[in-house]
Amino acid sequence: MKLPAYEHTAQYYETDQMGIIHHSNYIRWFEEARVSLMEQIGVGYDRMEAEGIMSPVLAVACEYKSMTRFGDTVDIHTEITKYDGIRLELSYEITDHTTRELRCRGSSRHCFMEKEGGNLVSLKKSRPTFHTVFMKAIEEA
User: Fold this and answer.
1) What average pLDDT does the chain have?
2) Is Phosphoprotein given among the entry's keywords (predicted)?
3) CB-hemisphere CA count at 13 Å for 102?
4) Which of 44, 45, 59, 116 meets the CB 3.0–4.6 Å disulfide criterion with 109?
5) Under DSSP, is residue 131 helix (H, G, I), strand (E, B) or coil?
6) Domain annotation for the chain: domains and CATH numbers
């Protein structure tokens, strides 16, 4: 399942004193792309939360390759790299929309928890519909 890249245009407020995008914004862009991917595969955060499931971030990593400036448009390619019913891992690659130059690569790890109580949840056991969607997404990646 090759999903379209998430597209983001760099905003002025995202820049630092050097006129480039502040490094912390790439992590926000990962989240925007992750939310888009989840919606595209059919398990959007709004749907999951309505069913009492949260997916907090356990870890995030980002390796910067080249600078993005105000007004640049980037494509964020997001892929599910690992899923076991309890945890989810994704990779991200941000490239310039026009030149395709690599801006950064990154990853994030998440788990699934009950909204009430905060206990870890196995989607395979408690939400088999969600589990099936994630399994299909990783098999088609």
Assistant:
1) 95
2) no
3) 9
4) 59
5) helix
6) 6-139 (3.10.129.10)
User: What contacts 24+ positions apart, CB below 8 Å, involve 42-51?
Assistant: 42/133, 43/130, 43/133, 43/134, 48/130, 49/115, 51/127, 51/130
The DSSP bridge partners found for residue 63 are 105
How much is the pLDDT for 139? 87
Tell me: pLDDT of 4 over 80.
yes
Region of 126 (left: φ > 0; alpha: ψ -120 to 50; beta: rest) is: alpha
Indicate the residue type of 16. Answer: D
> What would the two tokens of residue 56 be?
């907090």
pLDDT digits (tens, 9 = 90+) for 43-58: 999 999 999 999 999 9
- The predicted structure's pLDDT at residue 2: 74
**Which structure tokens are listed for 87?**
């945890």
